[in-house]
Amino acid sequence: MRISLKTKISLLFSFAMIGVILITSFVFFKKEFDADKQVRRFVYASISSAYDTITKKLDLEDLKNNGFERIEDKEATENVLRQYKKHMHKHDEKTKFPTALLKPDVIEYRSNFYALIYIDNNPEIFKISTFEQNNILAYTLFILMTTLLFLLYFAILKSIKPLRVLRERIKEFSEGNDDIDCKIKGNDEIAEVANEFDAAVKKIRSLREARQLFLRNIMHEFKTPIMRGKLSLEMLDSTSPYHKILSKAFIRQENLLNEFTRIEQLGTGELKLDKSDYFLRDIIDYALDILGENAQSVHVRVDEQRIHADFDLLATAIKNLLDNALLYSADKKAYIIVKEKEITISNIGKPLEFSLEEYKKPFFMQGKKQKESRGFGFGLFISLNIFDIHDIKTDYMYEDDKSVFVLKF
Fold first, then answer.
1. Which residues have a Cβ under 8 Å from the Cβ of 93 and sit 6 or more positions away?
2. Which of 101, 138, 234, 323 has its CA 20 to 30 A from that of 10?
3. How many domains does the chain have?
4. Residue 123 and residue 282: Cα distance in Å, rounded?
5. pLDDT of residue 268
6. Which of 180, 171, 175 is CA-nearest to residue 198?
7. Is the pTM of this model over 0.70?
């Protein structure tokens, strides 16, 4: 399951907030618990000090000096007593209605502490001003911590937001579009990575443009003498034996240049497809046409069906396979069979020296193939890569002295 970076940060922030709330709650609870114990000790000590054992009376003036403020307002007294009764279950039954002065009770109400003292069996409420609760600092710290977490959370989200744009630019670049701009303003690591990638893209674009200019110039230099030769060829007598030889040589040179162009485009991923629905028979017929007079040695059997492909590229790929099949055939014959979703091209001859994956590499020339090659050597490379970009599965087998290429689409 894919979990985005934003989700991970949100989860981390949520856990941090829960932790802050739990810690704050624990601190408040402990503070209130400790304060309650401290207030009770203070109340018991103050009453013991103010209680006259001879007269059996409380010295109210002494209590007042110790911070006990008698509540005269009846409504305020009832509110405090109501709070006391609400939480009465927390205390022992003996302290529910204490009759001894030394057993008062303490009530916390609206961040203040009150003492419940029975004087002549009448409940009296005293506000203990000495222990007024002051949670402003604690609340302020909680708000500051929460605010800081939120600010940090949104700052992190803002800093990783360019990652989505950078990902899209990288995807465009991988698809062959180098006309992208992914510079990001900022001083963090993400901005540094994006800006370094932008610099790399610009450098690659500059190198690619220089390479394309160089190749165009090279192609022009090669094509110019070929065109001049073909024009000169038209001046020769068509019945001359040299006419046919030179014509084949010029056609071969043009094919080699076109092959160079396709190799360069395949190597850089710039070869674009123009797909449409075609009859396979038409594509094979065109492949045989560009194969030339060697097409007479190809045995064809086609079950008519359609394929969604680039007509010229697929025909070129099939032509290259047929050309290789004829070139390396022991009997100078090749066979192509088309049946349901499958094309088979075979010949009688020696097996391939290397695996198909090796032939998909550009400029693959080594070992025995390099020494004995009778062709230019790139036909199979072009064909296999064209099949790949058409999503046509390629398989090779050697059985009964036959090399067999199987194309499944």
1. none
2. 138
3. 3
4. 109
5. 63
6. 180
7. no
Q: Is 386 left (phi over 0), alpha (psi -120 to 50) or beta?
A: alpha
Residue 159: inside a domain: no
Q: Report the alpha-carbon distance of residue 287 to residue 298 in Å, rounded.
A: 11
How far is residue 214's CA from residue 208's CA, in Å, rounded to a whole number?
10
Mean pLDDT of the chain: 78
Q: Where are the beta strands (DSSP E) in 145-250?
A: none
Give the residues across from 279 on adjacent strands: 306
Nearest to 315 by CA among 262, 360, 254, 374: 262
What's the CATH number where 287 sits? Answer: 3.30.565.10
Q: pLDDT per residue over 129-157, tens digit each?
A: 766 555 566 677 778 888 888 888 888 88
The last residue of a domain, from among 271, 303, 338: 271
Same structural domain, 188 and 234: yes
Q: Among the three residues 271, 302, 330, which one is the final residue of a domain in this structure?
A: 271
Residues 351 and 332 in one domain: yes
In the structure, what pLDDT confidence band is assigned to residue 89 with cuts at 50, 70 and 90?
Answer: very low
Six-digit token string for 375: 């062709």
Summarize pLDDT for 12-51 with one digit per residue, the tens.
Answer: 888 888 887 877 777 666 656 666 777 778 888 887 788 7
The C-alpha atoms of residue 364 and residue 277 are separated, in whole angstroms, by 33
My answer on whether 65 and 124 are in the same domain is yes
214-240 pLDDT, tens digit each: 777 777 777 888 888 888 877 777 777
pLDDT of residue 92: 43
Domain membership of residue 388 (yes or no) is yes
- On whether both 401 and 280 belong to a single domain, the answer is yes
Predicted local confidence at residue 99, as pLDDT: 40
Question: Best-predicted range by mean pLDDT among 6-10, 17-21, 343-347, 360-364?
Answer: 343-347
Q: Are 120 and 203 in a shared domain?
A: no
Do residues 386 and 314 touch, judged by C-beta distance below 8 A? yes
- Answer for the pair 324, 375: CB distance below 8 angstroms, yes or no: yes
Euclidean distance between CA atoms 365 and 349, whole angstroms: 20
- Of residues 319, 253, 251, the one with CA closest to residue 285: 319
Containing domain of residue 96, as a range? 5-134
Calculated CA dihedral for residues 41, 46, 47, 49, nearest 10 degrees: 120
Q: How far apart are CA 146 and CA 140, in angstroms?
A: 10
